[in-house]
Recover the amino acids of this structure.
């Protein structure tokens, strides 16, 4: 993770900068570039989006978006996965999904990369929760556990065969064992 020293003075000036690869985020007046996703991160992100969308998108309940910039609460962050309830997905005048999401996700999911600081990622999830997000997950592939942050800021840890709570109304049962099992094939 790289903290960029030349920083804009406002969220608006940050948003006027060109996008970076990997994405940069603006939170608490600081610009931080996310680490480049590696194999485990990419596989977990894709498989988890697919698992959520197979259940939620078909029934028009929610959609999981990978690497979607969300701008809200004075910050602009790019969770690894942002899940939006169907009725909250911004649409343009033609009814298509908007390009810009100026609102918080209902469920934010982060996957810890080897060179990422857990406290930084946890701070992003807490920013989401403080601004209306119902549920946050932090996946740690190294320790094979998932930290869950609920809307009341309570933090729980899930391992092994524990069923991890998902967004209310989505009929999906996942365990840490199952999710991290996707890394073995």
């Amino acid at each position: 993770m790289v903290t960029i020293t030349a920083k804009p003075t406002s969220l608006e000036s940050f948003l006027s900068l060109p996008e970076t690869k990997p994405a940069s985020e603006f939170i608490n007046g600081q610009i931080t570039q996310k680490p480049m996703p590696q194999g485990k991160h990419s596989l977990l992100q894709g498989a988890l989006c697919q698992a959520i969308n197979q259940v939620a998108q078909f029934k028009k309940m929610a959609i999981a978006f990978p690497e979607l910039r969300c701008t809200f609460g004075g910050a602009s962050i790019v969770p690894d996965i942002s899940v939006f309830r169907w009725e909250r997905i911004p649409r343009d005048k033609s009814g298509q999904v908007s390009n810009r999401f100026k609102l918080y996700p209902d469920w934010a999911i982060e996957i810890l990369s080897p060179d990422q600081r857990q406290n930084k990622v946890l701070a992003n999830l807490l920013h989401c929760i403080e601004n209306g997000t119902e549920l946050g997950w932090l996946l740690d592939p190294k320790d094979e556990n998932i930290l869950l942050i609920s809307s009341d800021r309570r933090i729980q840890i899930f391992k092994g065969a524990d069923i991890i709570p998902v967004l209310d109304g989505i009929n999906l049962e996942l365990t840490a064992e199952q999710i991290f099992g996707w890394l073995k094939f």
In short: Helices lie at 11-15, 39-56, 118-130, 176-181. The chain has one domain: 36-181. The mean pLDDT is 94.
